[in-house]
Write a structure and sequence with these properties.
The complex is a heterodimer. In chain A, α8 (154-191) packs parallel to α9. Chain A is mostly helical. Helix content of chain A is 76%, strand content 0%. By secondary structure, chain B is an alpha/beta fold. Chain B contains eight helices and nine strands. Chain B has a six-stranded mixed beta sheet, sandwiched between helices. In chain B, strands 2-1-4 form a three-stranded antiparallel beta sheet, with helices on one face. In chain B, a hairpin with a 2-residue loop joins β1 (3-13) and β2 (16-26). In chain B, α2 packs parallel to α4 and α6 (190-196) packs across α8 (232-251). The relative contact order of chain B is 0.18. Classes of the chains: A mainly alpha, B alpha/beta. The interface between A and B is large, with 34 and 41 residues.
């Protein structure tokens, strides 16, 4: 209850400050103005084609980044010589603020979708690589030993130990990765594009249209929050073995349980 | 039944000699307890028998198997490393699945094992939802389900409280007899070693550890652990083994005044 009240209070203060002229309304537009612009965008429908392009770019980069990052992370973790080459390369890529590569991608791949997907992909891939790589390397060695002493080979280790233990790391990375994916797409569009939310943003910036900028930001945030909700559902399924995702364990049947053993 | 013969086993980590010419016999179907001061190389010996550490000399021979082939060996460590993302049933079925048993049969068999260790009704629980004693029972079922002939245990009950420990030990003893298992139990707990085993071997302090003495533990099976504790013979044995161990620890230098 406290949070909605605080939100409402904050919004009304903002509204008041903006309307009274205490802050300049065209620099910090009041929430009602933003809401009106947002409604026009959504109801009027002009935003949908742009939004679709941006979401497609972000999800494309996310998907490709996850796929290649996970595969490279897995290979590097299992094969030491590969790790010796890949790890420093990835660390270097990680050190570069990758969005500054956007102009290069535009030169290489043109102002279309490809350059945005590439930027998005690069941002996500490096991150997923490290999540999977460290996830596998920090697997509990006792579990590995357990599977080995039960006679399990590499395929059992991957299925029973590595994949489940990396899943937890991976899911926590996924939320940050989706933010990165949209950063890549929008910044890419910002640099050079003919469509997309970033393109509209850059237009809004050049016309000093603060309400439109804020409305677009809110739109992107809403999409990311929706994806977060989806990931939380995945966590509930994939991490159901964690006590925090399993509030009610199945009831043990009292029959057949020796009371003396009910430790 | 399968027995185990360790002859002149030597294990070295670089220049550090852990075991030097250690010999030990575990007769078929016997329960042998191995006690020694901490750090003497007990765990190294066990890991060597389990094939996790390569010896630098000597040999481990199994008796009673065709051509002395390595029989299936079960290993239970102090840390019950159950897979946290698998239910009790899936954890117990793991070894069976690895052996190639079809999933459905392995699940049914695992259920039967969980009943044998007193965990009927907890099949679908994850390890995080089980107590320490229950996890230990699941680990025991997991190790025994693939029907090993030899069971190697390294301080398996060290982190259980006294009551739970007593209950799990009693059940382990019953299962070992039912399954005709040959057991080697490594522990620093003299009482545990004497209560459970037919023979208790005392190991010298490391480095370069050997077996210094082997005691016969004369109590008949099946054993009532509480009754055994009360026997005067038990007290006498305990004192004798303790005396051996004390000498070993004193020889090691530290603890001489204890």
């Amino acid at each position: 209850m406290r949070r909605p009240v605080a939100l409402l209070l904050g919004l009304s203060l903002w509204e008041g400050a903006s309307r009274s002229g205490w802050v300049h309304p065209s620099l910090v537009p009041p929430p009602t103005t933003v809401a009106r612009v947002l409604a026009e965008l959504v109801v009027g429908g002009q935003i949908w084609p742009h939004l679709r392009v941006t979401v497609a770019e972000a999800l494309g980069g996310l998907g490709l980044g996850i796929a290649l990052g996970a595969v490279l992370g897995l290979i590097a973790a299992l094969l030491r010589p590969v790790a010796e080459v890949l790890e420093p390369a990835m660390a270097l890529l990680n050190a570069v603020p990758r969005v500054i590569l956007a102009p290069l991608f535009v030169i290489w791949l043109g102002i279309g979708v490809a350059s945005k997907v590439a930027l998005s992909f690069l941002l996500v891939m490096v991150m997923v690589f490290f999540a999977v790589y460290t996830g596998i390397r920090e697997v509990d060695p006792r579990l590995v030993e357990r599977v080995r002493t039960l006679g399990g080979g590499p395929s059992h280790l991957v299925r029973e130990v590595y994949v489940p233990s990396v899943t937890a790391w991976f899911l926590s990375t996924l939320k940050v990765a989706v933010g990165f994916a949209f950063t890549g797409a929008v910044v890419g569009e910002f640099v050079a594009a003919s469509r997309g939310v970033g393109y509209i943003l850059s237009f809004a910036q050049s016309t000093y249209n603060a309400p439109l900028v804020v409305a677009l930001i809110l739109l992107v945030v809403a999409i990311i929050l929706a994806l977060f909700a989806l990931f939380e559902r995945l966590e509930r399924i994939w991490l159901r073995w964690k006590p925090e995702y399993r509030p009610t364990p199945p009831r043990a049947l009292p029959s057949g349980v020796d009371k003396a053993k009910g430790e | 039944m399968t027995g185990l013969e360790v002859r002149d086993l030597t294990v070295a980590y670089g220049a550090h000699l852990v075991l030097a010419g250690l010999s030990l016999e575990v007769p078929p179907g016997a329960f042998v307890g191995l006690v020694g001061p901490s750090g003497c190389g007990k765990s190294t010996l066990l890991r060597c028998l389990a094939g996790l550490v390569r010896p630098s000399g000597g040999q481990v021979a199994y008796t009673g198997t065709p051509d002395g082939a390595r029989p299936s060996v079960g290993i239970l460590f102090q840390e019950d490393a159950l897979l946290p993302w698998r239910t009790a049933r899936e954890n117990v079925a793991l070894g069976l699945r690895i052996q190639g048993m079809p999933a459905r049969r392995a699940a049914a068999e695992a259920g039967a094992w969980l009943r044998r260790v007193g965990l009927a009704g907890f099949e679908e629980h994850y390890p995080a939802e089980l107590s320490g004693g229950m996890k230990k029972r699941v680990a025991l079922a997991q190790v025994l389900a693939p029907r090993p002939r030899v069971l190697l245990m390294d301080e398996p009950f060290a982190n259980l409280d006294a009551i739970v420990r007593h209950l799990v030990e009693s059940d382990l003893l019953a299962l070992a007899v039912e399954e005709g298992l040959t057991v080697l139990l490594v522990t620093h707990d003299l009482e545990e070693a004497l209560l459970l085993s037919d023979r208790a071997a005392v190991m010298s302090a490391g480095p370069a550890a050997r077996i210094v003495r082997v005691y016969d533990v004369p109590f008949p099976r099946p054993r009532d652990l509480m009754a055994v504790r009360a026997e005067p013979e038990f007290g006498r044995l305990l004192r004798a083994v303790w005396e051996d161990l004390r000498r070993q620890v004193a020889r090691q230098g530290w603890g001489a005044r204890a």
